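the two lines:
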Amino acid sequence: MKDPLPGYRPLTEEEERRRRKRSVAIALALGAMVLIFFVLTIAKLGPQVLNRPL
Amino acid sequence: MTSLTNTLPVGAEAPGFAPAPSIVGGDVPDYFALLKPRVMVLVIFTALVGMVVSHGHVNPAVGAISLLMIAVGAGASGCLNMWWDADIDAVMTRTAKRPIPDGRIQPGEALAFGLTLSVGSVLILGLAANWLAAGLLAFTIVFYAVIYSMWLKRATPQNIVIGGAAGALPPVIGQAVVSGSVGIESMVLFLIIFIWTPPHFWALALVKAGEYAKAGIPMMPNVAGPQSTRRQIVYYTLALAPLGLAPVVLGFGGLIYAVVGLLGGLGMLAFSVQVFRHREGEAEKRSAMGMFAFSILYLFLLFSALLAEQGLGLFRPVMFV
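prediction for all of em together
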């Protein structure tokens, strides 16, 4: 591993593990939000909202 | 060039309120703990009852997403409360292990997390249901985080009396989601939770008076004294027991609810009398904690009865009404 810049230290394994878990949680939350907006669109506008001429 | 993504400024382990943490950046469960999950469950439950007593119709997907947003909004207000009250939480043993005072999450992170969830939950609820429900959720969040946490809690022994309005609003939001308006049913449920809150919390405050005094919070037992608090617990319970039967009188509580409300109300009265009578030693503590625990059961049973009657079709009218 490269040496960190002066005044910085490398993350510990535990810190890296926690950051990875936070990243996964954020990704899941974003995915859930996309799903929510998709379901809301279908529920409020009906499935025909996708059936329109280009 | 050396990457900064896997490094941390030396000394960035900013001190929390407890000994400086060895790890910067909380674990996922720490962020979840900021949302006060147990309160979220109660909010989902009471909001759901507010929805089913409304007799309206809502698309199940819209209803489920709305419930989720009400819960997230409540969690966000809990997160903002923990951000603001971290100094108090650090002093009290009951709350010292919360993520911020324990140093697992930095205050700024909690503030950003709470604000993001607040804005997101209100906007999505507005888009999913209607803007009355979203406005009520926004009001609830502001009322709990600003009016209660930042002002009332440290200013007056009436803190949890007035602040209880925030915890009482979820059924009103639930009804707004379904019907687009606020009706008598959810207002009665609001009143029941509102009047239930003081005896519930003061029972705990009687036992934890020393802790609250250490943290400088003017809870009723610390300001007016335990005797006055016990008397007020009885007064509020005297108001709560008949109020708990109001849904029967108004026709949306049936036979099951009437029995639960009557027996539960009598139980609450019996516990409040025990609290009033036992003023010293182990008996005092036991009766106060008994009241605290039973009050949770009482509210849970009242709302469960409504859910069973209105949601599962078990409603049988009470003949004498």
